[in-house]
Design goal:
By secondary structure, the chain is an all-alpha fold. The protein has 19 helices and no strands.
């Protein structure tokens, strides 16, 4: 069988949605709605591009090329190996996987404990159970459609709908005036908010696991797999749009009631407690636990699949255990330190990930010129590093007479002259210039050394 029934196609789409939809996806839309107010739907247009369209395109891009390694090899094999390992480690055990446990714990357990209760040992016990269950389900990555798509995803969507309809029946306030920067550029700010979910990076990991699930359902032909992934992507897009729209509306109608709150998790917590009371705390706990657990299972599966192929001496099960155990340890001790290291790394990796996804859809007449990949990715990586260094220098406190102070001022002045830098998109123009330079060099070399 090389085609899926509509029922199985929906299950794969639900699975893809579940793998993406974690804590950040729950927090950022209501935060956007609260800040954007009457500009919420303009901001949602930007969010849809960066947090819905780009991630789904990323999954399709990886499936088209067969793997992230093959896609990144369009630049250079060495770049492919380094970039792929950094992607998997950053979105896996170094940040995203431990964060699923720590975030769900903070939202699900402390609200039910007496004030001042020590949580160290409670969090350890929670993380042990959380990662043990995630490990057991991740042992069979080809069966994620049964666990995530068939069971947990529908439960999560129903819970979000309950909160949404509660906000419709008992609205705490109304859409307020937009707050800066949503008052001037809501679409761009919405795009940047979606950028923070880091789903475009996660997308480069999830393609292989989705292919395993399709093969387990009897789809083996390359074209049929790609077709099924595209259809699953459309299903996931609709689920994302529905969920984000409901959460953004929840934030928008409650934002003016909690003007002092800027955190999406706090907005959700206060709203649900006011509408549903004690039952609301249970509802919110279930939403965060299921969303974070789904993402955790998906990340353990895709990271273990990749590293087993990279180092087959260790079985998939061993890799899954190592990632679950390491993530459990980090979630309890050292997550703050790991995040302080990982965030700059992700800021470096995210722009080239976006560019790589977009380049994968170039027409064949352009994609045959490898220089486009080399030039665009090289310039993007360079300026991503420079802007990350700028952020780190901003944290340093140099005295006026310190030699680094003069250098820092010149460095900031140079980077701030680049268009879109004030919006956090200073790498966009260098990426375009790099693509044009790479194309020009490829054309010159092809004229000097014609084929045949």
């Amino acid at each position: 069988m090389n085609t899926l029934s509509w029922k199985h196609q929906l299950l794969v789409g639900f699975t893809l949605f579940s793998m993406f939809f974690g804590a950040g996806n729950l927090i950022f839309p209501p935060q956007l709605g609260a800040a954007a107010g009457s500009h919420t739907w303009y901001a949602m247009a930007g969010l849809s591009l960066s947090a819905i369209l780009l991630p789904i395109l990323g999954v399709i891009a990886v499936v088209r090329y067969g793997s992230l390694d093959a896609l990144a090899s369009q630049v250079h094999p060495t770049f492919s190996r380094v970039f792929t390992i950094l992607i998997y480690l950053s979105i896996g055990p170094c940040l995203a996987i431990p964060r699923t446990a720590s975030t769900s714990f903070e939202m699900a357990i402390p609200p039910f404990l007496p004030s001042g209760t020590p949580t160290t040992w409670i969090q350890l016990g929670y993380s042990l159970v959380f990662f043990l269950l995630a490990f057991l389900i991740a042992l069979n990555p080809e069966r994620l459609t049964s666990y995530l798509g068939r069971i947990l995803c529908p439960i999560l969507l129903v819970l979000i709908c309950v909160v949404f309809f509660g906000s419709l029946i008992h609205p705490l306030a109304s859409y307020a005036d937009p707050q800066p920067p949503y008052d001037l550029a809501p679409v761009i700010q919405g795009f940047l908010t979606g950028y923070q979910t880091m789903d475009a990076i996660a997308a480069l990991n999830f393609g292989a696991v989705i292919v395993l699930n399709l093969q387990a359902l009897g789809v083996h032909d390359t074209k049929s797999i790609l077709s099924a992934v595209i259809k699953a992507g459309l299903v996931a897009c609709l689920l994302f749009l529905l969920s984000y729209s409901m959460l953004a509306h929840i934030g928008a109608v409650s934002g003016s009631a909690f003007l002092e709150v800027s955190n999406g998790a706090t907005i959700l917590t206060r709203l649900i407690q006011q509408i549903f009371g004690y039952f609301g705390s249970i509802l919110l706990a279930l939403i965060f636990m299921i969303a974070c657990f789904n993402t955790c299972v998906g990340l353990i599966s895709c990271c273990s699949t990749y590293f087993h192929k990279l180092l087959p001496a260790l079985s998939y099960r061993v890799w899954a255990f190592l990632f679950a155990f390491l993530s459990m340890a980090i979630s309890n001790a050292g997550l703050t330190q790991i995040m302080s290291f990982s965030v700059p790394v992700l800021n470096i990796l995210y722009p080239p990930a976006i560019v790589l996804i977009l380049l994968s859809f170039l027409p064949r007449s352009l994609s045959s010129h490898r220089g486009i990949y080399v030039g665009s990715i090289s310039f993007t990586c360079l300026f991503s590093i420079l802007y990350t260094v700028q952020d780190l220098l901003s944290l340093a406190q140099f005295t006026p007479e310190h030699p680094m102070n003069h250098f820092t001022l010149l460095f900031h002045r140079f980077l701030n002259t680049i268009p879109l830098s004030n919006l956090g998109l200073g790498w966009v123009l260098p990426a375009l210039i790099g693509a044009l330079v790479g194309l020009a060099i490829s054309l010159i070399l092809s004229d000097l050394h014609p084929r045949g």
